[in-house]
UniProtKB/TrEMBL annotation:
One of its GO terms (molecular function) is serine-type peptidase activity. Keywords: Hydrolase, Membrane, Protease, Serine protease, Transmembrane, Transmembrane helix. Belongs to the peptidase S49 family. GO terms for cellular component: membrane. It is found in: Membrane. The keyword Aminoacyl-tRNA synthetase does not apply. Pfam families: Peptidase_S49. Residues 132-290, 389-539 form the Peptidase S49 domain. This is Signal peptidase. It comes from Pseudoalteromonas luteoviolacea. The chain crosses the membrane at residues 20-38. GO terms for biological process: signal peptide processing. Its main location: membrane. The active site is at residues 200, 406.
Length: 622
């Protein structure tokens, strides 16, 4: 009787489970069919409205691929620990379109959710804002506070206002990697490190608990140059000199004492903002400028994503008969194999370049790089495709974004021309190898490895350790790889090999110094690099398009299902957080993400020869 009872309960539960799963599946399918069959509601941009540039996340060259199911549930149940991303090209496109749109009368920079952006990306946006202002349209920046990234964009506004209880956080630049030596020692993990280059500090997090003096010396040089650029750009737009920036706690303390510690009054007194306004006062000011919306509560506005979506309602089809300049984006760490957008796979990025090479309509290629490097083997795979494009008679121009160092420089070196932003971090020409073995960790658990082999070469493994003679052989391979790096640059850039070695050694440079050394050709934006590529191909009329990975049929279906508005509406939404909660959550998420990224480095070390060209110091914190 008891057995039958439990059997009956099990069948009931199993039936309920299958019924629930099937119901959910049917609802999703019906939802996506209805959503796809129904015509999308047209996004209306009110006449005489304000473009509210409410950017949320981190400014990037390329959006990282996220599984659509994960994205849907992250959106439904709360913030992910991964920072959101905003495509710089989208922001620039929106501003440029608004400049010539008679319906848009002004821009409101709503930056409180903007996380981080390197100077090159911020400059692209401020250039677009400058053009908007030159068209006779004002830009207003308003927020409860301004971080360093946010303030750079805000400085391009005609007026900056801040909440009376707000504040600023402008602290300069720094690089503070995490160091794991003691943690690895406690776990009894044996580190086998091989490197070449006085300043090649990529392996320091594994062999030290702090930054070496050589790394501090090199990093201080380029960080100071980057900080000088930031100060000069902001001071040019604001009514003060570069000495208005606080660089010591004593200096900041003395200024704060003059306003009794009131951060908002500090911002006004020293020219950082023009006025203090509550959100209601700012809203009323814009209502006077453009009028109120249909509900009569807020100023007439269209948000960033809404305006961007409105532009997508009128897609322009590429002309199959027009010559093309293809842009291939290489963003993220370089690893072996295939990777989705947001990371550089040796096979996958080479495939994108190959696609451009085999397209008869493509007459020139721009390789847009935003990478601190990674696998040497994968970097060489990508460089081989660069050489193949040149051999096919098509010019290829490397355009460096925030960073193109180590492996990022490797894949750029053989291009016909190399362009970089003045704030681009590059160089770091050096090689290292790393292998972790766990023989001591296993001993602590009472686990041992023993046996026989046909050769001495087989005796080394992650469970047994590495024979010192084998380690010497690996070091020779690393030194050979470094020599190949120098030789390749010498040949590609027509430089003396000894001169290359002088500025190599793993040392990081900013683009202006790299230009002096002959490592790059010109300073300029991606758009200027595209124009140069077209000129090299003798093109007068051409179209520009980005070569992207093709999603599988399954991935496309999942994107359609979980991107459908009706299906999204069926999922519960996370409750709205107040500003303080958002700031706290964002800070925690950034810390979690940084720890995860540091830990994931070990997993991403998948070079078949365990040899890498990677700059771990190129991650600049603001």
């Amino acid at each position: 009787m008891i057995a039958k009872l439990f059997k009956g309960i099990w069948h009931a539960l199993n039936f309920s489970r299958r019924l629930l799963v099937n119901l959910v599946f049917v609802v999703l399918i019906v939802g996506v069919v209805v959503a796809m069959m129904s015509s999308e509601e047209e996004i209306l941009v009110p006449q005489d409205s304000v473009l509210r540039l409410n950017l949320s996340g981190m400014l990037v060259e390329q959006l990282t691929y996220i599984d659509p199911v994960d994205a849907a549930f992250d959106d439904a149940f709360g913030p992910s620990d991964k920072p959101m991303e905003v495509l710089v090209d989208d922001v620039v496109k929106v501003i440029n379109k608004a400049t010539h749109d008679d319906r848009i009368k002004a821009i409101h920079l709503d930056l409180k959710s903007l996380y981080h952006g390197h100077l090159d990306k911020l400059r692209d946006i401020t250039s677009a804002l400058d053009a908007f202002k030159e068209a006779g349209k004002p830009v207003y920046a308003h927020g409860p506070y301004f971080t360093q990234t946010q303030y750079y964009l805000a400085s391009a506004a005609n007026e900056i206002s801040m909440h009376p209880y707000g504040g600023l956080s402008i602290k300069g630049f720094g690089t503070y990697p995490m160091y794991f030596k003691d943690a690895l020692d406690k776990l009894q993990i044996t580190q086998h490190i091989f490197r070449v280059g006085t300043y090649k500090s990529a392996v320091e997090p594994f062999i030290r608990n702090d930054m070496s003096d050589a790394a501090k010396e090199a990093n201080k040089l380029w960080l100071n140059s980057l900080w000088a650029q930031y100060k000069e750009d902001v001071a040019t737009r604001r009514p003060f000199d570069t000495d208005n920036f606080d660089e010591t706690l004593t200096q900041l303390g003395e200024k704060m004492s003059t306003v009794a510690g009131d951060s908002a009054q500090f911002a006004v007194k020293y020219g950082w903002v023009d006025s203090l306004e509550t959100d209601q006062q700012f809203n009323d000011k814009l209502v006077e400028l453009v009028g109120a919306d249909a509900k009569g509560n807020k100023y007439k506005q269209v948000k960033f994503k809404e305006y961007l979506a409105s532009l997508s309602n009128f897609p322009t089809q590429p002309n199959p008969f027009t010559d093309k300049v293809a842009v291939v984006v290489a963003k993220g760490q370089i690893v072996d194999g295939k990777r989705k957008a947001g990371m550089i796979g040796g096979d996958s990025t080479a495939a994108l370049l190959r696609k451009a090479r085999l397209d008869n309509n493509v007459k020139a290629v721009v390789l847009r790089i935003d990478s601190g490097g990674g696998s040497m083997f994968a970097s060489e795979q990508i460089r081989n495709e660069v050489l193949a494009i040149k051999a096919a008679g098509k010019p290829i121009v490397a355009s460096m974004g925030s960073v193109a160092a180590s492996g990022g420089y490797w894949i750029a070196a053989s291009a016909n021309e190399i362009w970089a932003s003045p704030s681009t971090i590059t160089g770091s020409i050096g090689i290292f190898g790393t292998i972790f073995t766990f023989e001591n960790s296993l001993k602590e658990l009472g686990v041992y490895s023993d046996g026989v082999a046909t050769t001495e070469l087989k005796s080394s493994s992650i469970s047994r350790g590495i024979d010192p003679q084998y380690a010497d052989i690996i070091q020779m391979g690393v030194e050979d790889a470094y020599d190949k790096f120098l030789s390749m640059i010498s040949e590609a850039r027509n430089l003396n090999k000894a001169d290359v070695n002088e500025v190599a050694q793993g040392r990081v440079w900013l683009a202006p110094q790299a230009l002096e050394f002959g490592l790059i050709d010109k300073l300029g934006t991606k758009e200027e690099a595209i124009k140069s590529a077209a000129a090299l191909a003798s093109l007068e009329h051409y179209e520009v398009f980005t070569v992207e990975q093709t999603l599988s049929e399954k991935e496309q279906l999942m994107q359609q299902i979980f991107g459908a508005e009706l299906v999204q509406s069926l999922l519960p939404r996370a409750t709205q957080q107040d500003t303080l909660q958002k700031v706290t959550q964002q800070s925690i998420n950034q810390l979690i993400y940084k720890v995860q990224q540091s830990a994931n480095m070990i997993e991403l070390y998948n070079d078949p020869n365990s040899i890498y060209s990677l700059c771990t110091m190129c991650d600049v914190s603001q």
